[in-house]
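Posting this for the archive.
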Amino acid sequence: QVQLVESGGGLVQPGGSLRLSCAASGSIFSIDNIGWYRQAPGKERERVAKMFSGIRVNYADSVKGRFTISIDNAKNTMYLQMNSLKPEDTAVYYCNALITTLQAIQDDVWGQGTQVTVSS
């Protein structure tokens, strides 16, 4: 099976930075359509950023100019660099990707979620 394991969440002060990592493991041929989502208490899950075809990236208006999505294909790891963090960014963050296995099966895979808290 394939899976995504997140790390890098934690507590950060407003205006600070944090980088989330999402490592894929398993019988992986390729990783596509990587995305980051977040969910705050009492709110719907929100798409933060998504990369299509490895080049085109859509960002939520609330994070545009502050967050950057990227992937290191050699390490099968995706990242979300978060700068100029605001208290409103506090949420559980989830990574997501369409993973093609070595058996040519495509799986929509989600990470377990990692808590990001922006507070003084």
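The CA atoms of residues 2 and 26 lie 4 Å apart. The radius of gyration is 14 Å.
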